[in-house]
Structures
1.
Amino acid sequence: MDSPHKPRSFSPNLFFFFLLVSSNLLTFLISNTFKHSSCYLYQQTYNSIDTDSSLNTDIPLVVQPAETRDDDIQASDLDLPSELRAFASPHKLPFGFSTNFDSDSIIPPVGHPCTRFPDLLRRYMSYRVNGSCPDDEILGQKLLLKGCEPLPRRRCRPAAQQEYVEPYPLPESLWTTPSDSSVVWTAYTCKTYECLINRVKSQKSFDDCKDCFDLNGREKKRWLSTKGAGLDFSIDEVLAVKKPGTIRIGLDIGGGVATFAVRMRERNITILTTSMNLNGPFNTFIASRGVIPLYISISQRLPFFDNTLDIVHSMHVLSNWIPSTLLHFLFFDIYRVLRPGGLFWLDHFFCVREQFEQVYAPLIESIGFTKVKWVIGRKLDRGPELNEMYLSALLEKPLKNSW
């Protein structure tokens, strides 16, 4: 016989109340257990940087080792400098996921080859946070030329001139040698601009662009007239290829002291100049003249969006000393940043004649440019027995069907 008292069913509301209390208790216990974990300390450290304006700059800021941080630094990277890990590790966005980044974090870019040179990298990233950077321009450039590009950012103030003198005003600055006080000379053999100007006469050893700093020498005459068996195009004859006013912005790759950019500025055209500081303050000199330097190597992807520049120029730099595969990538990168109808002025490309016929002519023709000018001549400065040659070419990205 069934019992008259049926067992009561467990109340769903009571079950969910019990579950809620249990989960809150568990969360409380975990948060107290790990309150002083590395993640917590890491966040507190960075909060203090943002909020404490009275931070003592005489005391090095401690950055937690990567092995104790909640990020994706791999075990193989644990011997990297703490400042590199602080910069290059993923950084959580304050407001969470961003559709622009398609992520909830920012990962700052650092050249992967940086990690192949841990000793140099450790030296470069060793400094007092919020203090002065070491005077280490040679070290930074050595890393950059080894492929550590872009260099990691640092949290220190760069070496600077003790008594800086304001630059000459435009347009005077374009053709006036700057003050010696505009340069930190530690990295260079010469310690004055006078020494740099005279080194073509007094120095027997090779230096890149040895006579470039003499603005009253060859620089004064560059690109003003057609000469050299037709290899030397003038700026005005190149600009005449396009409708007036349609060449407005561009790039000069390996532009020495930026005389090309200065000539173009005199024609109301803005040119950025890439240059390294190979035993000379090229970037500082360029800026002192009143045009814009871009401190990147020929290996770096050009920092411009597709189809944007009107003209790209390069003289002597893009030649047979660059591995042919890398050169192929570089030419395609130039094609990428030029707008349809844009011009690539390949100025005095040099190689051995057999190389030109077998390698470089087919390589250049494979890119897709239209030939506007194509002039070949002998290169005799090192002797005719080497059978070297120059190519000066003016190439146009097709206005239609350039893709």
Note: The two ends are 89 Å apart (CA to CA).
2.
Amino acid sequence: MIFDKLRKFNVVFDSPEVNSPPVFSSGDVVSGKVVLELATESKVSSLKLHAEGFAKVHWTESRSAGSSTAYTQNYSDEVEYLNRREVLLQADNGEMTTLPAGRHEYPFSFQLPEETLVTSFEGKHGSIRYWVKVKLHRPWTTVKKIKKEFTVIEPIDINTPSLLAPQAGTKEKMARIWYRNAGQVTVTAKIDRKGYTPGEVIPVFAEFDNSTSRSVLPKAYITQTQTFIARGTMKQKRAVVATLCGDAVGARRRESWHGRAIKIPPVGPSILQCRIIRVEYALKVCVDIPGTSKLCLELPLVMGTIPLHPFGSRTSSVSSQYSLNLDWLHMAIPEQPEPPPDYSSVVSDEEAVRSTPAARPEDDLSGILQRSLMAYVQEFRFRPPPVYSEVDPNPAPFSMRPRCMTC
């Protein structure tokens, strides 16, 4: 039969490293070859390649139109980033091309747009994907298609003034027991910079002033927020990707963290330039206060791809830039780590009320989102992060003078 004539039909990308998929960024040249292996002589009308890149979002929400009437509202949007076509094989006069039995290779090459692309991403309500699709047209048979995705990671260099700037803040809360004030809790925190890369350790400098009559418990979290936007409506998915728990601060006492370490797990870079999908990170320094909602101070983070003081030229190809910092794709996780807390246990009661959506049926994610996930997925698909060291290498004395953390 004619279907048996085609033994192999696949796409192979050129890669500088053996057994390692290539990584591209805007302006790079994507090259490779289409491989055909025929069992017998075969006639071919054409062989065409189409390269595409899209950001897409989709989710559904249930609406009520009365006591007994309900309907489902669909939200979807997309942004095109790549559209290239190339003819690999086609006779000039429109006639058939006869290929002998055996292996045939057809090279292809195209340049990604010079304007900034967006990092590949897979999430619950959306994705950013790039792929090449090849169609083989033959007489008297259906068109044979093959599709292969490739990875785009837009570099984020943390060696810039805005990402090297220290981040600091102060927040206070009056604790209440029944209808009377029980004293004030104040948290002041500072980190060395805004930009980090996966695998780095963030030294947290913080001061906790507990003026209440009960002990409070300080904690720190790294959170990730995925935001999907369609038709003027926003949907968010939040997760805690790393956690750090400190020692209790006694009643009417003050304690400090002198560079308490929290390690960044293997997560994907921040996505800040896409119109319909954003991935953002933050460091939350919180205090659990008995009898009242927790106090949380949030410091923004940007997850970059080019680490602090990288070696080599910054104008080199993205593949060589990532040779140093792609370890976050393969970082090993201990066999039995302690899972991070739910996001609901991190936010304050007021914030939880504002961000909690109305009850609705499970979203229908069939269709465009039913795809295999990639290793650099921003949604936390790895094992939960390990228990990071909570031992202060420079413990503070029992009594400590007040210290300004924002200076």
Note: Residues 311-338, 358-391, 398-402 have pLDDT under 50 and may be disordered.
3.
Amino acid sequence: MEDDESDLDIMLLMLDNIARASTKSANQIERPVCRPITDIGYDYIQKALAEKHEHFRSLYRMYPESFEKLCVLIRMKTCLRDTRHICVEEMVATFLLTVGQSSKYCYTIDTFKRSVFATSENFHKVLKALNTIAPDLMAKPGVTTCAKIRESTRFFPYFKDCIGAIDGTHIFAMIPKDDVPSYRNRKGSVSHNVLAACNFDLQFIYVLSGWEGSAHDSKVLNDALTRNTCNLEVPDGKYYLVDCGFANRQKFLAPFRSTRYHLQEFRGQGCDPGNPNELFNLRHASLRNVIERIFGIFKSRFLIFKSAPPFSFKMQAELVLACAGLHNFLRKECRSDAFPVEVINTDPKEVNIFEDNGDVGTLESQQREYANNWRNMIASSMWADALGNGSQR
């Protein structure tokens, strides 16, 4: 009798264990079948680094030497390290292939033979690392007059204290449906307005992304100047060139309105400037054109910005800063920008003219009056010298 009870207890215990095991199994989420661990990605990037440099540059937007220096910099300045099966070089190559070719993850997955999860993780790790070092990669405002101005009688001494140019550019964005109206720009596209300042060596000094596409450039600039962190600082005695989308004021020199300004308006026979304001605008536009050039180089190098990147909006904004830092790194390490440059539309009819609503304080009104007088003095001096030299260009 005791043996029967003992056997029964054992059977009940076994049934209880089986029931517990089946319940636990039912509550667990079955993991997808993972790709087998492979060294194909590592072997691929090592082989690519050793082959034709031009082919590597066309794929990864930089030469192998610059690529290796970038990986060294990332290792030194960030926490990104090789994992057990994936090296930093492969992670960086994954990121560059995605932003440089606007390639989908499926292409990158096929190239490096990694899972979707591993590919996404690598991309995000490098994006985080680049955003960590991007502030250090931004160019510092010049203290002395740059060579482009100093060595030209067209620009010196009139623009001797100018350190660069500022403008906004629109980058396509993927936005939640409810927010689309705010991000639709004047051309009807959904975008975010990116404000950038650059020097005359085609390097970014400051980048602010994430503003709605419908926002006016002057509003974005005011935010850049007044924000508590990561604000735009202009050294005393220096200034940037801006277009008619901004007010003329101290530290931001705008052209004369209701006057020819764009370079194409001065091309051809009989199109020379006919007065001080037109001459000032021509030379102002010639210098300020650097911001249009840097936007063109930026968008031609990083083709992911040709369409809306398929990420969260926060990540889309971070991606702009990361690629701006990359651009500056490459300007120092790889001077050639021989990609088909994006042509920026500068049609005068599409210029977002700054409109003064009249609601300005006394101090700001005085500053604008001072800035207008300062601009008039530059134009008058420039015109007098041009007449004396017999050149009105």
Note: The longest strand covers residues 162-172.
